[in-house]
UniProtKB/TrEMBL annotation:
Recorded GO CC terms: chromosome; nucleolus
Source organism of this protein record: Guyanagaster necrorhizus
Protein name listed in UniProt: DNA topoisomerase I
Matches recorded under SUPFAM superfamilies: DNA breaking-rejoining enzymes (SSF56349), Eukaryotic DNA topoisomerase I, N-terminal DNA-binding fragment (SSF56741)
Lineage, uppermost ranks: Eukaryota, Fungi, Dikarya, Basidiomycota, Agaricomycotina
Domain annotation DNA topoisomerase I eukaryotic-type: ranges: 415-862
UniProt region (Disordered), positions on chain: 1-253
Catalysis: reaction(s): ATP-independent breakage of single-stranded DNA, followed by passage and rejoining
Domain of life: Eukaryota
Keywords from the UniProt entry: Coiled coil, DNA-binding, Isomerase, Topoisomerase
Positions with biased composition (Polar residues): 14-34, 44-56
An MF annotation (GO) of this entry: DNA binding
Ranges of biased composition (kind: Basic and acidic residues): 233-248
Amino acid sequence: MSTDSAMLSDDNRPATSSPNGHANGKNGTSATEQLSDEEEIPLSQVTRTPYSSAQPPRQKRKRAVYYESSSEDDTPLASSPLKPSSDAVTKPGAINATTVPASLVNGKGKGKAVKEEYTECETPDDAPSKAKVNANGRSKRPARKKAKHDDDDDDDEAVSDSGDSTPPTKKKRAVPRKRKAKEQSEPEPESEDDAPVKKPSIQRATKKVKKEDGGGATSEVDASKPKKRGTKKEKEGKEKGKGKNKKEEEEEEVFRWWEVGGGDGSVKWKTLEHNGVIFPPPYEPLPLDVKMKYDGKEVDLPPASEEVASFYAAMIETDHAQDATFNKNFFDDWKKVLKANPPLNGTNIVSFELCDFSPMFQHFETEKAKKKSLPAAEKKELKKARDDMEAKYTTCLLDGRKEKVGNFRVEPPGLFRGRGEHPKKGALKFRVRPEDITLNIGKDAPIPVPNMPGKWKAIQHDNTVTWLANWTENINNSHKYVFLAAGSSLKGQSDMLKFEKARELKNHVDRIRQNYNTDLRSKVMADRQRATAMYFIDKLALRAGNEKGEDEADTVGCCSLRCEHLTLESPNTIVFDFLGKDSIRYYNQVPVDPQVFKNIRIFKENKEDEDALFDRVNTSSLNKHLTSEMKGLTAKVFRTYNASITFQKLLDEKEEELKNATLQEKLNAYNHANRLVAILCNHQRAAPKTHDQSMEKMRYKYRSLKYERMKMRHALFALDDSYKSDDKYADDESEIDDDWITTHEESMRGKDMEKAEKKFEKDNEKLIEDGKEPHGQSVLDSKIKAIKDEYKRLAKERGTKKAKSNKTAEKLEEAIEKLGQRIKAFKLQMVDRDAGKEVALGTSKINYLDPRITAAWCKTHDVPIEKLFSKTLVTKFPWALEADAYWKF
DNA sequence: TTTGAAACTTAGAAGCGATGAT
DNA sequence: ATCATCGCTTCTAAGTTTCAAA
C-alpha cells in the first residue's frame, strides 16, 4: 500500500482547510464581514457534536497519506521511494543488542514523514495556499489556508496586523546551539568571552553539612563560603555538632547556589565528570521446563524470541493485553523476531490466538513470590549489593561538586506502553547498547567504561547542555536523555527561574488581558483567534497544543482544538470535551465572555467537526506574540502563573480562619487549595481500585451515625412529647429505612455477641493465669441472653418513635448536637473523598505550585514542612524552604 | 517559511515499602 | 504477625519550546 493514492482519493478535499473559505474567502472583505460583532447567532447553526469521551471520531485522520504509512512495515524496505531507507537510519547499536536485530522489527527507518505538498485548488479566491493537509483532515500544520500576512493585507484595511511587530529579540545570540556541536567532540565554545557566564563567585557557595538526627542540618561553614546568610543557624549547628560524635562525618557539600546569583546563560558547567549509565543485565533464558504453548503444544523458543515473548507473558493479566492494537503490534514485531529466531522444534507461529503464554506468566509469578518470601536479612543483602554496584553511577562531579544523577539506568527493552490510542502501543522497544549512546562529559574527565561489552557511540564535551548521556529510542525515534536529579543545582536553578518568570507575569498580566480582550473583537481573523486562544489558556489553563503526527495518539491542546471539541450552549456556555496530554479527558462546561462565545460560533462556521478551530493560530505564532508582550513569556507560563497565584489566593483567604485551627484542619485547608489547583490543571489519576469499597464502608458508617442520632431523638421524645414539634429534632434520617435498620440491628447484635464471647474467653484466660477460678458457661449465657433481650427490645421499639435511654433530656440534647456535628463533618469527608478520587494532587505540587508559597505558609501556621512535602520534594526545593513567613508569590 | 531535531519539563502508571487495621 | 492500604518513588511517555536546516 505504500502511500496509496487510493487513500488519497477517498476524502481528499483539502479537508481541513475549511473548503469554503471560512473566514477567508478572500480574506479581506469576507473576513471582515464575518467578524462583525453584530451578527445574529442562529442558534440552529451552533454545532453540537457530542461524542463520548474516550473516542473522538477521527476518521479523517487517515488522510495522512501524505506521510509514509506506518503500517507498511512489511513491505520490502528498500522498495518504496517514499520510504527512507531504513538501513540508513537504523541505529547500529540497536541491532542484536538484545539479540533482536533492529532491522527485523523496525520496518521503517525514521518515522520521518515524507510529505507532499498539496496544492490547493479550491476556493481560488483564497489566499495563496499550499495548505498542507494532514491528519484528521488536518494538516501537520493547521489547515490554515492563508498565511497571516495575507490576512493583513486584505483583511480589513487598517488594523495593522500585529502579527509581525518583531518581538524584542535579544540580540544576545547565545552560544550556538549544540545541534551542530554535537557531531562530536565539539570544538569547545569558541572562547566566547561574551558568553554570559558569570559564575565566578559561584564556585564556592558551598557549605559542609552534617546530617544530624535532630533535623537541623547545618554545621561548619566552608571557609570559602561567600555570603553570610544563615549564620545563626550555622552556629547552632556547630555547637550541636561538637557534642556529636564525628563518626557521621559524611558531610555533604550543599551548594547554596540560590545565594550566589548568576546561573542564567547558556553555559551550564565548566567541568563534568561522571560514570556513564548502567545497562540492564542481559537476558536470562527461562528454565527448560518453562515453555509457552502454541495450539496446545509446547514451543521451544530460542532466547531472542523467548525474551520478547516473556515481555508479553508478563503482561497478560494487565489491561494492555486486552487491547487489540497492543496485541497486534506486539505480535507483528514478535513475528519478525521469530522469523530470524524460529522455534527450535519447528513450530510455525502464525496466529496470536493460538498462543498461550500462561506457563511463562506463572513462572514469573512464582519467582516473584519466592523473592518476596526471602528472609528480610537476605533481601537487605541483595539490596545492599545492588546499591553498591550502582553507587558510582548515582552521582557525578559538576564543576567539582558532587551532584545526584537522575535516570542513570538505561531503559530496559520491553513492549512500548503508549497511552490512550497510541498507534504503536505494544511495539517492541529494543535493548539499548553502548553503541547507541552518546556521552556528554567534560573534556578532561576520564571516559567511563560501559558495564556491558561495546563501545560508546560518541563522546562529546558540550557544556551548553545539561545531559550526561542520550540515545535515540526506536519506537518514535525520539531522544532519551540522562539528566541530573531534580534536587541538583542545575534543575533547581531552572526551576526557580521558571517560578520567577511566572511571578514576573504578575506585572504584565493586566495589560496582556486587556490586550487580548480588545483583540477578541479584532477584525483580523488571525488576531481574533489568537486572542480567543489566549483567553482559554489564561482562563482555563489549557496547554499550548502543538500539532501532532499520524503515528501518535490523537490528543489536543488549545491551538490544536478541533471544532468537535467545543459545543456552544446559549447564552454563553461552552462545553469542552477532548483528550489532552496522556489522553486524559478534559471535560468542562464554562460560561465565557459573550464575545468569546460569539467568536467560537464564528470560528466554527462552515467547518467540519474535524477541522481546526483555530486555523490561523499555532503554538509558534502564539508564543511569538506572547514573547512580544513580555520577554520570555510562553503559553506554559500561564499555567504556572495561574496555578501558583490561585493557590496563594486560596491560602490567603483562609489565613484568619486557621489561626486557631488544629493541625489537621490546617492540612485539610492546604490540601483543599491544592485540590482546586489540580482541578484547574486537570490533573487526574485513576481512581484507587478500592475506592468504591471504601466509599461503601463510609456510607455504612454514616448511616450508623444517623441511626444513633435517631435513637437519641426518639429517647428525647419518649421523655417529653413537646420535642417533637421542635424543628431541631425533626426527622433527618432519610438515608436509613426500616429494612436497613433491621439489618443493622441484626448485624450489631451479632457483633455484640461475638464480642461478649471473646471477652469471656479472654477474661477466663486471665483468671487462670492469675491462678483463679474461671467463670462458668452460665456467665456467658446470661450475657448473651441480655444482649438478645436488648435487641428484642430494640426491635419492638422500631417505628414507635420512642426509645429508651438513661440519659437526661439535657444530656440528650447535648449529645444530639455533638453527633450532628460529627455527622456533618463525616459527610464532608465523604464528599471530599469521592470528589477527589480522580484528582492527582502530586503533579501540581511538583511542577506548578511555587514551593515558597508552601514554605511561607508552613511558617505562618506553624506546620512542619514534612507534613506537606515528601522527602523528595524537600530535597527538590532546598532553594525555596528558606522563604520567610511573609513571602508571597 | 516550514519542518523536525534537540533539549528540557510535565505527566500518570507501576512498583515498592511504610504503616495501620485486624 | 499478617495483610491490606496508601503514599511515595521510580519509570518513562508525552508534552513544550527553541532553533537550525531545508
